[in-house]
Amino acid sequence: MLDQQETLPLWQEKAQLSSLSQLMSLMRPSSLRQYLGSKTLPLCQEHQPKASAGLDHKACYLCHSLLTLAGVVVSCQDITPDQWGELQLLCMQLDRHISTHIRESPQAMHRTRLKDLAAQTYICWQDLLAHCQPQVAPPLAPRLGRGGK
């Protein structure tokens, strides 16, 4: 769908989070809109406001669906401390590619809903991060010498 020539190993549980973070940049609404526009609209129609608004709605709907699926993938996994860094990267990708690129508008409630979903997903993933932090070994206590006291 997004012109991916290679298949990603999404069925392998350990590879899911890293593959998902690679796909997060493709889920950016502007990227989806550009992709959908190149496939559906002839060049002369790109300037029509109604066609442009419809394309924006489709891109946001597709991003919403993909983000919902990403949330399902992450929530279905038992996040291990080894995957903590991958989940942290996924949160950063979500913020960088989705949340910051959605411009809300009173005329476009679909954008507000998408931004809300992105915020809810981010909070959920941050909560997972807080509960699966990698175990840090406590600092070694200084050894007391066995002097002749």
Automatic annotation (TrEMBL):
**InterPro entries xrefs:** FAM178
Return the protein name. Answer: Family with sequence similarity 178 member B
Report which gene this protein is encoded by. Answer: FAM178B
